[in-house]
Amino acid sequence: MAEKVNNFPPLxxxxxxxxxxxxxFADEIPIDYQSLVKRIYHVWIFxxxxxxxxxxxxxxxxxxxxxGVNFGLAILWxxxxxxxxxxxxxxxxxxxxxxxxxxxxxxxxxIFGAQFLxxxxxxxxxxxxxxxxxxxxITFFSTNAAAxxxxxxxxxMFTMSAVAMLICILxxxxxxxxxxxxxxxxxxxxxxxxxxxxxxxxxxxxxxSGNSLPEYPTVPNYPPGNQWP
Length: 229
Description:
This protein has 229 residues and is mainly alpha-helical.
């Protein structure tokens, strides 16, 4: 088997840094769930773009008469949540479907759920939080209509991000519960230490040679992806 070389993030050759992760949907994710895992990845990308738009909106907010602290926090959120979102909730989802890891499923549910709630707060847009949401944009129309229009773009994108996150977490939960997943299984992985480096599905199958199969399948029989709305 060829050695897997880290390929994400894809960095230019002149940068003296190397990618930190190996990511290959076709190679590591079961075909029935590749579209769902890719959708979660696209949600992460869209959320990062939303944070960039939010910086521009907060700058317009500041220029139009708002507080500069919102612009500073918007930059901080982009620097913080872009890499943390990939590492803390996309990678657990990727590893969960790659290895059928209950621990990673649970990590995804808890962290992605917290991210979903935070995105709702950003979509609302409380002043001083560094997020141009609906409340901030609508109330600012009386002060500077032009700046408020820029702020509406950020509010719309935060709302779209929250809706996409809700859809993803519900679909993953249906698949996990439909396969008999539970918090107890996640605890068992924690106690045994297999959560640190769970074997891939391919590696689980390679543990058996010849025509013999284990009494119980190592990979649960998930319902086909097209059965879930």
